[in-house]
Every structure is written in structure tokens, then in C-alpha cells.
């Protein structure tokens, strides 16, 4: 069986569920990556062998458990959360006391040496406020230290705190997109400058061959949930570890158990199953992680063509620091889906996720790129985030039935009336970062 790195942490100290999320773009889109193909036709970062990523993850202090390979994305399930690799960008999401940022220099080296991607187009780093910051190793113990680490690499970064400093809040570091003119990058205009190399064989992103309006919209929804109900937490504990059945090896048992649990709790049905490839893992003695690749497109998704997206879920179920996260980059409509076969709209997706985990407190972020900087586009972006804020509120503040948990109980946090569970909004913030807009909201159980 793969080693559950989380086990030793469960036994000794509270486990830090909130993840550190590092996203590094080496080009504005997969179509912008011009490099030689691997034998299987992969380009850019996707042609890098798994062992190379595993060497980087050793620095971060986590392990690869499994991987699913899609048409556009490789989704690695880790002992602490997830790694997503695209042709042009990488997303490293790690929880616990992992050293997420210490993996960044190696990621830059890997992109340069293995994928002919010598410069960074844009970098994002974000996380929810930690429950136990004193348990984090440097540089993750304090936000100012994380910012200093990133500032030492990127000359054009900016750091933000979104939400109440003395309550749940969200932290973001974002760099300005690089502008590369011509085929030989000017180091003064590319970040980080130390990773820029002149190579006539490489055709980097240039102002002449791409425009902002031609780029696909970047869309990420996060639902970060704390203090899960007892009924929602119970299925993620395994007091008696499952035993291998005939023909089932111990190495595959955590994945089989994870898939069974996903079906029982409705995780498998968050998106239609016929467009979902799900990879799930049940940790012993407790905990759960899953990655899914989604084939999206059609009328249920606005302004986008057919493509491939992901969602990822991670659960720390222990009382006192219970936590679950959901992240998804599939563009969701703010209008009702036309049928059960469609990709869910934003409101339905929030309801499905929140009903599974029944948190006492949660925050939601929608991070979405602007297509251009014209006034019309800025107005349109404002309407998108306001529409999202309305869907956040409608999904969570209306009284509605609670979905049945695996224990057969519909109770949530000892709410007297089974069917009367709703939340009150405690924070609503819209932010414009230059090229991106953010809708942030926090809620707590009434």
C-alpha cells in the first residue's frame, strides 16, 4: 500500500486542512506553447516524466498516490492534496505542513530544462488563513514570510488579504503578466528574469501572435468548509481498516474504498458521471482526497468551447479541526441548467457540495479573468462577479432540506428542525486585481 504520509500527523498533532495553492503559468495558453513533442504527442510541461515531478515533490514533502491522464491535463493525487499539470501551467495544492513554496525554484528549473519554457508568464499563490499557523515550518508560518519568499523571485508581485483579518480570510499573491516582445525575450520584461534564456528555436508568447481577447477565460471556484457536521464526518473514518477482497491487492484498496465512498456520498454525482473521470483515495485511519477530470462544453457553459476541466476535493474529518475543500475550473453558468444531463449551474454545484459536507462555516471565492481591459469588458466582469455573489447567497441562505448522509440522518450540528438548515452571510467582497476579478463571501450556519 502507498504510504499515507498523513497518518503520522493524525496521530501526533492537529492536521492543517487548509491548502497552500501555487499556480505557475509559463505561457498564456496551451496553444502558446511551441516545443517539440514527446513520443506520445505531449508538449510543454506534460511531456515531463512523472519521476521528475516526484523529485520536486520530495522537496515539498509529499508523495504521488495515483494519476489520471486526460486530453489536456494530468491530475496527480498526492499524499497531501493534488498536482495538476497542463502544457503551459502547473497547479500545486498541498495541505498539512508541506513546504509548498520550496518547490517553486525546482519547478522553474524543470520547466526550463525539460520543457524549453525559460520564463514565467504569471504566478499565483493563495491560501485560506491557517488554523494552526504556529505548526507551519518556514516560510509558511507567517504570510509576510511567504510574500518575502515570492518577492525574492518575482519583481512584480502584489500581496492581498481578502476578508476579516481576525476571522476566516483569504490570502493572495499575484504577479503582473509578462509581456514578451519578439522571439528573443527581453529579461527586463519577463519574470523571473533569472529564468530567461535566448533561444531562437523557442517561440514564446509574443504581443504580435496573441491578443488578450483570443485567450480563454480563466475561471476557478473554491468552496472552503470548516467545522463539518458529525454526520458528514463519520463516513471518512475507518475504525476497522478495509481488508483486501479476493483478487484485490492492498495497493489498490484505498482507491477502491475511495470510489465506493464517492458514490455513497454523492461526490460521483456532483458532475454528470458520463463526462467525469474520478480518481479517489480513502486514507487510513481517516481522510479522503479525489481529483476528477471533466469534459465540459455546450449550451450549459457560457462563452466557451468544448474542453477539459478539473475538480478536486480534500477532507480532514477530525473533530476540532474538520475541514473540506472543493476547487473547480469548469466555467459554470449563473443561469439554471436545462436538464440533469447538463453541467450544473453555479447555484446547484454549491448546494451539492455543501450538502455533502454540512459545514458550520465556509467561504467561497470565484476568481475569473477579464478578456480585455476595455470599459465594456470591465463592466461585464463586474456583472459576472455580482451574479456570482447572488448565486452564493441564493444557494446558502434559503431554507432547504439537508441531503441524507451515509448514517441515514439528516441532522446537521444539532439543528432542531431537520429541513431548516441555512446560512447567513458574514462577508461579501468584490476585488479587481488587473486582469482578474474576485468574488469572495463567507457564511456561517444560522
TrEMBL record:
Keyword Lyase among record annotations: yes
Assigned EC number: 4.1.1.50
Gene3D superfamilies: S-adenosylmethionine decarboxylase (3.60.90.10)
Pathway: Amine and polyamine biosynthesis; S-adenosylmethioninamine biosynthesis; S-adenosylmethioninamine from S-adenosyl-L-methionine: step 1/1
Cofactors: pyruvate
Pfam families recorded: SAM_decarbox
Highest rank taxon of the organism: Eukaryota
GO biological process per UniProt: spermidine biosynthetic process; spermine biosynthetic process
InterPro entries listed in its UniProt record: AdoMetDC-like (IPR048283), S-AdoMet_decarboxylase_euk (IPR001985), S-AdoMet_deCO2ase_core (IPR016067), S-AdoMet_deCO2ase_CS (IPR018166)
GO CC annotations on file: cytosol
Protein family: Belongs to the eukaryotic AdoMetDC family.
Protein name: adenosylmethionine decarboxylase
Amino acid at each position: 500500500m502507498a504510504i499515507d504520509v498523513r497518518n503520522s500527523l493524525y496521530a501526533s498533532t492537529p492536521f492543517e486542512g487548509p491548502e497552500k495553492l501555487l499556480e505557475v503559468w509559463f505561457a498564456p495558453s496551451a496553444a502558446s506553447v511551441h516545443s517539440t513533442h514527446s513520443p506520445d504527442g505531449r508538449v510543454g510541461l506534460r511531456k515531463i516524466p512523472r519521476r521528475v515531478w516526484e523529485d520536486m515533490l520530495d522537496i515539498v514533502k509529499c508523495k504521488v498516490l495515483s494519476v489520471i491522464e486526460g486530453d489536456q491535463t494530468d491530475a496527480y493525487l498526492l499524499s497531501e492534496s493534488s498536482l495538476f499539470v497542463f502544457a503551459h501551467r502547473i497547479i500545486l495544492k498541498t495541505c498539512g505542513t508541506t513546504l509548498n513554496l520550496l518547490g517553486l525554484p525546482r519547478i522553474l528549473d524543470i520547466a526550463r530544462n525539460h520543457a524549453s519554457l525559460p520564463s514565467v508568464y504569471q504566478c499565483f499563490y493563495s491560501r485560506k488563513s491557517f488554523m494552526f499557523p504556529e505548526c507551519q515550518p518556514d516560510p509558511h508560518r507567517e504570510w509576510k514570510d511567504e510574500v518575502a519568499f515570492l518577492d525574492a523571485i518575482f519583481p512584480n508581485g502584489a500581496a492581498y488579504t481578502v476578508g476579516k483579518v481576525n476571522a476566516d480570510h483569504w490570502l493572495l499573491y499575484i504577479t503582473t503578466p509578462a509581456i514578451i516582445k519578439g522571439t528573443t525575450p527581453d529579461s527586463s520584461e519577463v519574470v523571473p528574469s533569472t529564468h530567461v534564456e535566448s533561444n531562437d528555436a523557442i517561440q514564446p508568447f509574443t504581443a504580435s501572435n496573441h491578443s488578450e481577447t483570443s485567450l480563454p477565460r480563466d475561471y476557478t471556484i473554491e468552496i472552503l468548509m470548516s467545522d463539518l457536521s458529525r454526520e458528514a464526518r463519520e463516513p471518512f473514518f475507518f475504525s476497522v481498516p478495509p481488508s483486501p477482497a479476493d483478487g484485490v491487492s492492498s495497493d489498490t484498496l484505498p482507491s477502491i474504498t475511495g470510489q465506493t465512498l464517492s458514490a455513497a456520498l454523492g461526490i460521483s454525482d456532483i458532475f454528470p458521471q458520463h463526462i467525469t473521470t474520478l480518481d479517489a483515495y480513502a486514507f487510513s485511519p481517516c481522510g479522503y482526497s479525489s481529483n476528477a477530470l471533466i469534459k465540459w462544453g455546450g449550451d450549459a457553459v457560457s462563452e466557451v468551447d468544448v474542453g477539459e476541466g478539473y475538480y478536486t476535493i480534500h477532507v480532514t474529518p477530525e473533530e476540532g479541526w474538520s475541514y473540506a475543500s472543493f476547487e473547480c475550473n469548469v466555467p459554470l453558468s449563473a443561469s439554471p441548467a436545462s436538464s440533469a444531463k447538463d453541467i450544473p449551474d453555479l447555484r446547484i454545484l454549491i448546494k451539492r457540495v455543501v450538502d455533502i459536507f454540512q459545514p458550520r462555516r465556509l467561504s467561497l471565492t470565484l476568481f475569473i479573468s477579464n478578456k480585455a481591459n476595455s470599459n465594456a469588458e470591465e463592466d461585464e466582469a463586474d456583472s459576472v462577479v455580482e451574479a456570482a455573489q447572488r448565486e452564493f447567497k441564493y444557494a446558502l441562505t434559503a431554507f432547504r432540506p439537508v441531503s441524507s448522509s451515509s448514517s441515514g440522518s439528516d441532522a446537521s450540528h444539532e439543528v432542531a428542525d431537520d429541513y431548516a438548515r441555512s446560512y447567513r452571510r458574514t462577508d461579501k467582497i468584490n476585488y479587481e486585481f488587473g486582469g482578474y476579478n474576485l468574488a469572495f463571501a463567507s457564511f456561517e450556519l444560522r
